[in-house]
Amino acid sequence: MTYPEWLRPGVYGALIGAVSITIVGFSWGGWVTGGHAETMASSRSHDELIAALVPVCVNMAETDIERTAKLASIQEARTFQRRDAVIATGWATVPGSKSPNRDLAQACIAGLKLDAS
């Protein structure tokens, strides 16, 4: 099948335009693939969940009978070992959960205001 000669530049222009718009959209336009969007949504929901659970951790710390001893052991630990110290206190284990959450323990350190010391 033959196409008229005047149609060829229009087809080339449409193809080049489609490729250009795709490149610009994915690089500067904020377009993402479905997999990347799912990853971003999962990351945000995880971060929000941890932020919502920090008050639970702080409340568990405030109501703990051995609070002062446990806080002292956390403060005596080196900075990189504090998360493990919070996990050892049991404050990073959400009620109903069987194991502690490492991200919650890290966020709980900030919630207990132990970063500065």
At a glance:
With 117 residues, the protein is mostly helical.
SS-based class: mainly alpha
Main sheet record: none
Beta-strand share of residues: under 5%
Distance between the first and last residues' Cα? 79 Å
Unreliable stretches covering 5 or more consecutive residues: none
Taken from the alpha-carbon principal axes, the silhouette is: rod-shaped
Order of helices and strands: HHHHH
- The overall pLDDT average reads 91
Portion of residues in helices? 55-70%
Total helices: the number is 5
Could you please describe the fold and organization of this structure?
This protein has 117 residues and is an all-alpha fold. The protein has 5 helices and no strands. The longest helix has 30 residues. It is rod-shaped. It starts with 7 loop residues before the first helix and ends in a 6-residue tail after the last helix. The mean pLDDT is 91.
Pick out its properties:
117 residues, mainly alpha, 5 helices, 0% strand, rod-shaped
Topology at a glance:
Blueprint: H1 8-27, H2 34-63, H3 67-76, H4 82-89, H5 102-111
Helix pairs in contact: 2-5, 3-4, 4-5
